[in-house]
Write a structure and sequence with these properties.
Length: 301
């Protein structure tokens, strides 16, 4: 099976970067024109009473005698457009855009063993080689209700020209592109949820970077986001990483460092699944049961 790509190790601590959007520029009003007045034109000729004609005839303006009636021209009306109701101004077609508010906690499922038909947002955390992307996609496909899957690495690689690959060195550009990808995923998640579509996002979030990690996801999505950690043993992630190729394969030393920092999630209060001995369907089932318990008793984070 294919597995998610883990990001090379960012520095454990660093100053938080605040993203702020520029204030919109005001639109200047067009200058007022001269006051409207009566139309100016040539003087009108004196009124002459019309000549009476027999029925079925009329006199044209050239005065050459009676002529048969021509069909009366139909008045031309400009096409009328119905005003847009206020409720439709926040939509694109029939897709409701998110209002911008944080996603609240979902209601507990009716059956405690699984999430059922509940619409919810999930953040699946884990190191490189944990199987986050594969499990997240399988869980999304196996639900009975509409569910979307977003992989942070896929969104990050939308940048083609100018892509900042952390394997070439962790710097301000790679950090900024990670933050931008997380904001993009957060907006997409809220957009799906606004249209009653559940969403699961996978990301390698480190416990020792709360401002840009878990705290950032809470800002982007809201307190209703349910985080779950997928953390198999080191030998498993090393074996899975060895099967990768290209820029998605990390060195064994990097994988070991990432896995060691991910161990900091133990004792954090977040639910953790050790899928070292489980296949993808079994891990997805455990994920669903874990989410059901988290909905009934949300973790503090």
């Amino acid at each position: 099976m294919q597995h998610v790509v883990g990001a090379p190790l960012p520095p454990p601590h660093g100053p938080a970067q605040i993203w702020a959007s520029a204030a919109p520029h005001g639109t200047p009003h067009p200058p007022a024109g001269p006051p409207a007045g009566p139309p100016v034109g040539p003087p009108q000729p004196p009124h002459t009473p019309p000549v009476q004609q027999p029925p079925g005839f009329t006199t044209h303006g050239n005065g050459n005698g009676p002529q048969p009636h021509a069909p009366a021209p139909q008045p031309h009306h400009a096409p009328q457009h119905a005003p847009v109701p206020p409720a439709a101004r926040d939509t694109t077609g029939h897709i409701q855009l998110p209002p911008g508010g944080p996603v609240p906690l979902p209601a507990p499922p009716t059956a405690a063993a699984h999430t059922g038909n509940t619409t919810l947002a999930v953040l699946l955390i884990g190191p490189a080689g944990a199987g986050k992307t594969t499990v997240a996609k399988y869980w999304a496909q196996s639900r009975r209700v509409p569910t979307a899957h977003i992989s942070l690495d896929d969104v990050r690689e939308w940048v083609c020209s100018g892509f900042a690959d952390p394997q070439a060195g962790w710097n301000d550009h790679s950090e900024a592109q990670y933050r931008l990808a997380r904001r993009t995923c957060g907006f997409a998640a809220r957009n799906f949820l606004a249209n009653n579509i559940s969403c699961i996002v996978d990301d390698a979030v480190f416990p020792d970077r709360p401002v840009v990690g878990l705290g950032g996801w809470k800002r982007h999505v809201g307190p209703g986001l349910l985080p779950v950690v997928l953390l198999p043993g080191l030998e498993i992630v090393l074996e899975r990483n060895a099967k990768r190729s290209g820029n998605r394969r990390l060195s064994d030393e990097e994988v070991a460092r990432i896995h060691g920092r991910m161990a900091g999630w133990y004792g954090s209060g977040l639910p953790i699944i050790d899928n070292s001995q489980y296949d993808v369907p079994t891990t997805a089932q455990l994920l669903d049961e874990t989410l059901a318990r988290a909905m009934a008793s949300p973790p503090t984070w």
